[in-house]
Write the structure tokens for this entry.
Amino acid sequence: MTISGRAFPLSRRAALAGAACLALPPPVHAADWTFDAYARAMQASGRATDLTAQTFAAMRQRRGHALQQLETWLRGELGTAAPTVMRAIAALPREYFHYDYAAGRSFARDAYDWYPRAWPIGHGSTLSALNVQAYMTQLVQPQPHETALEIGTGSGYQAALLSHLARKTCTIEIIAPLGAAVGRIFGPLGLDNVETRVGDGYDGWPQEPGGFDIIVVTCAAQAVPPPLLRQLRPGSGRLVIPVGPAFRSEQFLYLFTKEGDGRVRSRRDIGVWFVPMTGRIAGG
């Protein structure tokens, strides 16, 4: 997924309120993320990598510049870069998620190239651009006591990011081989508050008591699935979803909020480009 029409869309709004000052302690600490730790985690998740200690070090050297670029971009778009979101991104090793599951190969060396683009991960799915993942996360402002749902697990990065910021994260992937493989990557990072499922995201996760405070949809729908709106928690629920035709430039992010009396409000946000939501919503 990319931002529609340009690499860096023009800022159009004032600062949003920041996320909570108290963040959950991240399971992965940057200081502990060495080449050996990376290699062990990749092996434990059943994936191969061709990185050496030297290429790992060179890749990690680019990380600081990429994070600085991201912070500048978020400030330009949203007026602020939420400290909790930036800390979670800094703690999460993005190279671990740069993997093509159809080809069975890692492309971790590209993890910190600052060029907003979507990365193919096989089976018709993509790893979204880091700036848009950060943008969507900041829009919904996750809090440490909240429960989050992601529709479209993909690479697992967005679910992992939410897991650093919320008490519990559930994530659904409709592509069975991708969902099964990505479901194995969270444990080696110590992310024990992520629940995964292979299934149609149209139906959401109705088994969660009380619904969700946050729902993040990472595929474009032509209309918002009604079950997702029903599963938003009254008084706190926020849903961010790209809406628009498949493989077209007329997609936009929409932010939905549910009030205490059950009324739902919506707001159109920036133009984007996502792979389409499949399954029931597409007549499949």
